[in-house]
Write a structure and sequence with these properties.
By secondary structure, the chain is mainly beta. It contains 2 helices and 13 strands, in the order αββββββαβββββββ. A hairpin with an 8-residue loop joins β11 and β12. It is elongated, with a radius of gyration of 28 Å.
Length: 203
């Protein structure tokens, strides 16, 4: 009988250790950024840049408008700015919004660059915004849908107000009001919308 041979059994080899994934860290960073964007209690100083470029019609003439719209926030308090440069129909730089010849014009030029002041964000227990308004919906769009008060801007800047009180009692009472221009109080009253509701069976 021919002698039998046994093939050598290869020794098991261990797979190389996988490199640690950076995905959890990225997810954590995203979560932190989302918390800051919502203006949570732990949110500190934040700067959110913004810019816009286009044309606008003023006094029947087409002007070029370049605006920088950053928001600076600290905690729940946020201030939005609108720093504009205008080029007239001959593409010459205009002094519109930069008139400091006297105290009145200088004050108006400075205030014009403050777009809005807000406390927290929509949906918070207490939210308020004073200045320009945009993207507001009331009554599932039946009362107001994507409402804003910038239709007459830049010819005229309106001082609007948007206030919310959410889930303020055990019944889940909500109140919301929108005023398009507080300066119209002396001119017969501004556009005003109001909403109230409650959620007794809230989760």
């Amino acid at each position: 009988t021919a002698p039998s041979t046994t093939a050598p059994v290869p020794k098991p080899t261990s797979a190389p250790a996988a490199a640690p994934s950076s995905k959890p860290a990225a997810e954590a960073t995203k979560s932190d950024n989302a918390a800051d964007a919502k203006g949570g209690d732990n949110a500190g100083f934040a700067f959110q840049p913004g810019a816009a470029f286009g044309t606008t019609t003023m006094n029947g003439q087409t002007w070029t408008r370049l605006s920088f719209t950053p928001e600076i926030s600290f905690g729940k308090l946020g201030v939005g700015f609108n720093i504009e440069l205008f080029l007239d129909q001959n593409q010459n730089l205009s002094s519109r919004g930069w008139d400091f010849d006297n105290a009145r014009n200088g004050t108006e030029s400075v205030l014009r660059k403050i777009d809005y002041v807000r406390w927290d964000h929509p949906g918070a227990t207490f939210y308020a915004r004073l200045g320009t308004l945009e993207g507001i919906g009331l009554g599932y769009g039946l009362v107001a849908a994507n409402y804003g008060n910038k239709d007459r801007y830049p010819d005229y800047k309106e001082l609007g107000a948007h206030v919310q009180l959410n889930d303020i009692t055990g019944l889940g009472l909500d109140f919301e009001t929108v005023v398009n221009n507080l300066q119209d109080v002396q001119n017969g009253g501004p556009f005003t919308a109001f909403r109230a509701g409650f959620r007794p069976f809230k989760p």
